[in-house]
Amino acid sequence: MRKAKYRLLALLSVLALSAGGCGSDVSSRDVKTGDSAVDASVAAHTVTAEVNVNYTAQKLGSLISGTDGYKFEFADGGSEVVFNTIGTSSVSVRATDANGKSNTWAVNVNAIDSTSPKFSGIKDITAKNGEMADLKKGVSVEDNYDKNIDFSVDFDKQDKDPSAVGEHIITYFAKDSSGNIASRKATLTITGENGETETKQTTSKPEDSSKAEKKTTTTTKKQSETAATTAAADPNAKSPNVQFYQDRAVIAGDSIAYGFCAYGYVPYDHNIAKGSTALRQYDDTSLFMFDPTGTPLSFLDAIAAVKPSLLYISMGMNDVNLIDDQTYVTRYKDLINKVKQRVPDCIIVCCSITPITAASQFTDINNIRTFNATLKTTIEGLKDENVLFFDAYSVIVGPDGIYSPQENSAGDGVHLAAGCYQQLLDKLAVLLDSKGMKDKITQIEANRKNA
Known about the structure:
The chain has a five-stranded parallel β-sheet with strand order 16-15-17-18-19, sandwiched between helices. By secondary structure, it is α/β, with parallel strands linked by helices. It has three domains: about 20-110, no CATH class; about 120-190, Sandwich (Immunoglobulin-like), CATH 2.60.40.10; about 235-450, Rossmann fold, CATH 3.40.50. It has helices at about 1-15, 55-60, 205-210, 210-215, 220-230, 240-250, 255-260, 300-305, 325-340, 365-380, 390-395, 420-435, 435-450; strands at about 25, 30, 45-50, 55, 70-75, 80, 85-95, 100-110, 120, 125-130, 140, 150-155, 165-175, 180-190, 250-255, 270-275, 310-315, 345-350, 385-390.
């Protein structure tokens, strides 16, 4: 069981883009590059830790599987360790079990950077027509690892005339050397000569003036929407609403879920996912914090802060080797209930675990298949029209119906190639159309706006 976890931690570091060269700063003492400072004969354990974060021996030891009830101390008596360079290093700890038996362990630490840059000074801007607004004035970005990091500011792609009088959405974007992304939005308001904001042609005035016409064509409109939904229900059909759902989807989960953000399919403010996140411990704030709003938050607090109308959950690859399927779905149901308490009107999509390639030794493929079968039965058994099971496994699986083809792999046999995420979005849209979710999400958004 422990061996499988070691493979998991190594694989997760791939998507986090951690790379060679190692060292750590241990309290008041140094561990030089390549110096393990441990006896090669002692038991060795491998964990993944965040770069530039203080770890006590207890916090570091708790990352090792199967150590509930253990007490940990650094063998040299130090109080904390900070891994200030991405890469691997070793630390010697004294592990004492619940019966008082002690052993010295070598903890091989893979230090990664999975923390996004942080913006400060972003605020809405007002400028008069014809003035040049400095969109970067007063704005800065810092990173936990990179000393210097730049950022860009862009207008919405659908904004045809960014200089027109009215409101314009601008997006601040930064990416660190490890591939972590930060994205924040603000509003640029351009006023007319009298200081008033004119309404752009794309705002609601034309819509309001056409209410009477809309009423007379309601039947025709509904018929056309129904026809589109019916056509999209065909599993081989292409939904006309892929972009509608993609614009609204908030992605929550592990490194596979993070691929939606890493490959640019969703913005960072729709990302509540990172490597190593597991259903068994998603709520452990000592391990996982998320910052889609610019402030570090727990998994559930981040969901509540973003308040999605459509939430896509993808977790489980980090659970298949460490818990059984019944524990997995028990945790899943608990998560769903807590999300519904925080965001009662949210549509929740529970995604199955994607397949590995035949060459991968990460786990037995039947573990994944068992977890998925149990999850499907559980979600469908809830009989909740706002909670859906999405069979992502079948989207990624190859012609044999068991394994993922090599072309769908990001290289390690576990993570997904970029193109897989478009496939997932396309099939997700078909599922959502078949359940009438476009109209439901539109209504959710209208209700929130009028609340």
